[in-house]
């Protein structure tokens, strides 16, 4: 309901009719339930913004992408049954954050019977592990000398504070594997609630 201009423009001594008073009271009550509070709140209907929209949380460390790349060593050869940490970085998170982690490299194995497994770890724990099953680990078994891309994907929820992300590779006993040009993408999806 829109208020009549005559209701809002009263001079001292002008009478205020009961309908004017009721309209003003209804407008105040509607404002209390239908306003957007500058300190926060939930918009339950469509929101239209004319002009720019800024959101400080969208420019924070709870969102973003970070590339972890080799610091010196670009290739890892002779990988056997012992896990090799190819990349590792300690990251400070100012708020609880959900992470999407993508590890990538180019690998080969000595033969199809000796595989390479690439995993992503957060604070020493393999991501996406469900009992003995690992979801998102990169797995490779190719004829010797064949180089192919290998990718691992993981998710993790981290608390505020310092956490270590790692990209590791493991071969199998009796054979060897290689992984070159490893990278680890740390994608911050935002707060965990």
Brief account:
This protein is mainly beta and 193 residues long. The protein contains two helices and twelve strands; from the N terminus they run H-H-E-E-E-E-E-E-E-E-E-E-E-E.
Which class best fits the helix and strand makeup? mainly beta
> What can be said about the biggest beta sheet?
5 strands, antiparallel
Question: What string gives the helices and strands in order?
Answer: HHEEEEEEEEEEEE
Taking the alpha carbons of the first and last residues, their distance comes to 37 Å
Radius of gyration, Cα only, in angstroms? 29 Å
Strand fraction equals 35-45%
- List the total number of helices: 2
Q: Which percent bin holds the helix content?
A: 10-25%
Please tell me the overall pLDDT: 84
Overall 3D form: rod-shaped
* Low-confidence parts: none
| Number of DSSP strand runs | 12
Structure explained in plain terms:
The chain is mainly beta and 193 residues long. Helices cover 11% and strands 44% of the residues. The chain contains two helices and twelve strands, in the order H-H-E-E-E-E-E-E-E-E-E-E-E-E. It has helices at 5-8, 18-34; strands at 63-68, 75-79, 84-93, 97-109, 116-122, 125-126, 129-130, 133-134, 138-140, 148-158, 161-170, 177-190. Strands 1, 2, 4, 10 and 12 form a five-stranded antiparallel sheet that branches. Strands 3, 5, 6, 9 and 11 form a five-stranded antiparallel sheet that branches. The radius of gyration is 29 Å and the shape is rod-shaped. It starts with a helix and ends with a strand. The relative contact order is 0.25.
